Amino acid sequence: MKRILLTAGTLLLLVFLLLHPQEGLAAARTGMTLWLNSLIPALLPFIILTGVLIHTGSIEKILLPFRPLFEFLLGVSVYGGYVFLLGMLCGYPMGAKLASDMYESHKISRREAEYLTTFCNNASPSFIITYLGQICLLNKVPASRLFLCLFLSDFICMMIFRLLIYRNHLPGSVPHTDRHDEKKETSSAPLSGNALDVSIMNGFETITRLGGYILLFSILAGCISLYWPFSPVSRYVLLGFTEITTGLSLIADSGLPFRFCCILSAAAVGSGGACILAQTRSILHKDLRLLPCLTSKCLNAVLTGMIACLLLR
């Protein structure tokens, strides 16, 4: 089934590019501009520097005083707290990337890594304030309300997973046998001398993979805009949950009622969209399941939409 869907999707995009080269070029340019101007400068330095900290074992020393706070509020270890902080600050898909790296480096268990992907993979504050609030919603909604909608829903989602799904989880209590015993070939270098080189290579490998997904999903968004046969409202809903950057821009220009645009945009950002899920799957270690992240993002979208209905009037 996966092969059939992949083949059908590939053929659809090829037909779109051949029949509508101008629209395809515009969509591809939009995706690559996003990757070059936003994703690389925002994420690549953090990926490289975090890799160095992981290899040198400095994270635990820096954040050890905050260990009781992380365990009480989030139910995670010191390394999980680092994933939470960087995931919230750097945005999609940094949280999932760090959780995967920590698991691969034997810093956290598989259970904790999957738990972290349910609430640490979010839009960055700069994306919420600048792109969503200022560009798409034209500063008509206070940034504080947008943050409240998105982070309150994420907190509720975290509590649901912590109390119902991972209620027996204790940081560091999972045996070492639950952890991955193999590392990437590029990460098997000595911890000191080659830590920077390994981190740089891994960083560029990750950022290039993410760029490929952004390119393909931007073209898919252009294809949906042109071919979607149903109502305009359903088209904008689908676009918003396909690739959020392109989708939010199209929702803002849709002419739909402003309150509906606000609610739909907030829900789309809460979900991350299909492109973010594909990116997350590509950077997660093979031992880590996507299902917890997928479930949390669906729940997050619903919760964000409900909270937005109450707050964004």
TrEMBL record:
Entry keywords, A to Z: Membrane, Transmembrane, Transmembrane helix
Transmembrane segments: 36-57, 69-94, 145-165, 210-230, 256-278, 290-312
Keyword Hydrolase annotated: no
Protein name (Swiss-Prot/TrEMBL): Sporulation integral membrane protein YlbJ
Species the sequence originates in: Blautia luti DSM 14534 = JCM 17040
